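Hi support team,

I'm opening this ticket because the web form for multi-chain structure prediction keeps timing out on my end. I have pasted the exact lines I submitted so you can reproduce it. The total is 581 residues across two entries, so I didn't expect it to be a heavy job. Is there a limit I'm missing, or should I split the entries? Thanks in advance, R.K.
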Amino acid sequence: MAYSEKVVDHYENPRNVGTLDKSSAEVGTGLVGAPECGDVMRLQIKVNPETQVIEDAKFKTFGCGSAIASSSLATEWVKGKTVAEALTISNTDIVKELALPPVKIHCSVLAEDAIRAAIGDWKKKNGVTESASTETAAAH
Amino acid sequence: MSNQEAISGNGSGSQMSNSGMIITQAKGPLPEGVHLPLYMDNHATTPLDPRVLDAMMPYFTNKFGNAASRNHAFGWEAEEAVENARAQIGKLINCTPKEIIFTSGATESNNLAIKGIAEMYREKGNHIITQVTEHKAVLDTCKKLEKMGYRVTYLPVQADGLIDMDDLKRAIVKDGPDKTILVTIMYANNEIGVVQPIREIGKICHEAGVLFHTDAVQAVGKIPVDVQADNIDVLSLSAHKIYGPKGVGALYVRRRNPRVQITEQINGGGHERGMRSGTLNVPGIVGLGKACEIAGAEMATEAERERELRDYLRHKLESNLDYVQVNGNMEHHLPGNLNMSFVYVEGESLLMGINDIAVSSGSACTSATLEPSYVLKALGLGDEIAHSSIRFGLGRFNTKAEVDYVADKIIEVVQKLRELSPLYEMVKEGIDLSKIEWAAH
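Hello R.K., no limit was hit. The queue was backed up. Here is the completed structure from your submission:
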């Protein structure tokens, strides 16, 4: 199995590894995947309540190198974006950036799910109503 | 080996090996005697022993004759070499040279044994017994026979990987159209290294008048195999698992008590007493014979050496890491095998971190199904444990310095990946992972 240089780089130097206080109102937590499938991602975001900008993001992932790289990349990309902007990140962007082979596409899907789950959790905590434009929760 | 020497040295950072792999070398000098990439996957295949190559070489060059050429010296010379190899194999497994049929490898041997017996004895019965952790060469062959109308029983294994003798006795059908004609149970498992109670299985089969075949690829040359004492009727073996060449194997077919008959699966010339046509692979056969001779002569000391290295590896990993478990019965076990799960770390990511070491993972994240090893699942291990498993295959050329290097590297990478693992963090916080509703995907 050959990995792309970018996957190897994220695997060897994962960005934003860690844990945010999930009880904080500013923090949204997404936990996706399942141990029996060999992939579990936990992605957390810390959102500025005034600007809705994602000021911090952390992840931890149990999974193959591509899963680790996909979630590491996702934290890099969501940081500095508003919640609405972060929702536009799609798994195909991740596939492209990391040059994932077809058998690893599910890793990118999981990373997109993790972003959406974290934002969904933050919205729920803060009573943010879903606007039509962001109602695109992944179901697959 | 030149391949290892070519990329050894004290360099750091990444470099391409001549196999095209990216080799990330440890910072600082490598320990003495350690060359990268490091091979510790000897259940998959083994390097050719230089002594085996020396024995084979003349049969590639000036001794090139066809062993079936009966009327000139080139043929006689080749035939003599083949007969010598038969005797070398016979000595290792305690059979006569005439009972050895040469094949292209153990997959062919297994196919020939199972299909050949099924076809030959169809009048007598229609039932075959095997077990769930067999190699695919046996399982897929049995599935094919099922499609052809045979009935196959797949015995379960216990949590330690061994089959239950009572299950076997109950599965044997003594009369009727579904009478059992063949039991095929592997000697030692390729993933978890457990050694089945072959002697007892053979005895049960013989008492019931059922033929007994064993895929002994991982056992022959590693532990004592005696077809007489073990009550084995048909046995598959392979050269490349015992430091011989790829592409050659053998099938032992008992000639007395009982005389086993096998319907040939390849036609064309009637070689190998009609059971396997095709010009003999003389250099390969010479290599197989030599590999058997060496394995027999060195077995006692080598098994002891590998067992010590294996136990040392296990102890070092267990004393430096939490949440590790050994898979398979460790008492009835191949000396060079260790199958361990590093729970809360996914196997493929672990392999990626140790990519200068060749071992195998029980995780199959690269396959479309995401299914982990069926052998580990058969033990009743949860998928997440199976995904976390690594198979170490120690062999003749592995050293203590290599075992230390491998253990240190595994410990380092497992610790790093557990820092990354949400599951490890949750378990450390006292969360019961089985109580979480995981989203299926």
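A quick check on our side: Chain B touches chain A through 33 residues (CB under 8 Å). Let us know if the file doesn't open in your viewer.
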